[in-house]
Amino acid sequence: MKRLFLLLTLFTLLPFLSTAATANEEELAQAIANAKTPEEKGLAIAKMADYRDTGWQSQEVEMLMILRNRQGQESKRNMRMRTMEVAGDGDKSLSIFDTPRDIKGTAMLTWSHALKSDDQWLYLPALKRVKRIASANKSGPFMGSEFAFEDLASQEVKKYTYKYLLDEFYNGTDCYVVERYPAYENSGYTRQVGWIDKEHFNPQKTVYYDRKNALLKTLNAMGYRQYLGKYWRTEKMIMENHQTGKSTVLTWDEYKFDMDFTDRDFDKTTLKRVR
Length: 275
Fold this sequence. Notes:
By secondary structure, this protein is mainly β. It has a domain at 25-78 and 142-257: Clam (outer membrane lipoprotein receptor (LolB), chain A), CATH 2.50.20. 11% of the residues lie in helices and 40% in strands. The chain has three helices and 15 strands. The strands form two sheets. A 13-stranded antiparallel beta sheet has the order 6-5-4-3-2-1-15-14-11-10-9-8-7. Strands 12-13 form a two-stranded antiparallel sheet. The two termini are 28 Å apart. 41% of the residues are buried.
C-alpha cells in the first residue's frame, strides 16, 4: 500500500496500498462480499484499498510535525516529502527537514519493498554522512516522533497477513475493522487493528500493539480531500503513544502531483545534495 495503514502516507506516512493492481474494482468488491473466511475478507479489503490508491505516479507535499511530551510541551518541525510509485515494488520516498535550524537539511530516503526488508538511509548534515538504518532498528522512533521508521515506508499488501473482525461505525463513518500481522522480521508490532471506511477505503484509525502484544499507540487520520478526481489524502494525523503519554501531530499542505521524478531523484547521492 502506498499510505500508512491508517494514515499516511506518511509519509505518505500515510496511512493500505501497493503497486499495480491485478483485478478491477468490481472483482475486488465481489471478493469482499463472497469471502468465506475472515482471512479472505481481510485480504480482499486490503487489496481494494490498494487498488483505490494506485496510479498517482508521483507527489510532493509540505508537512508540519508537532511533537508533544507528556506535559503538553510542543516542538515543531517543517518538512517536505517526495514520493514516487515503483511498478512491481514498493514506493520510493524522500523526506527533508527545513526547520528548526539544528536539523535543517536532515533527510531520509526510503526504498520500500513488498517481500524483503525496506532500504532506508538517513543523512545527518552535522556529520556530513549518510547512515543506513539497519533492519533491526526499524522499530525505533523517527527523529524523536511517535512514528517508527517502519511506519514511514509504504505499506505494501504482501507485508502483512489479514483478518476481518467486524463492521463498526467510527466517528459516524461506516467502517470495516481489519486486523493485520507483520509478515516481515524485526517489526516492532505483533499486530495492528485498522478502521477502513467502506465508501472510499480510507484509513480512519489504527491501533498498534507492541512485541509483547500490549497496547502501544493509536493513529487517527482526518480531513480527507480528493485530488485528481480520484485519490484521497489526509490533512491531519495524530499518533498517540499510550505507554509514554507523548504524541505527534502531522499536518499536510500543498499536495502536488505529476512531478516527473526519476530514480535519480531517489538515489543515495541525492541525500547529500538535497536542498
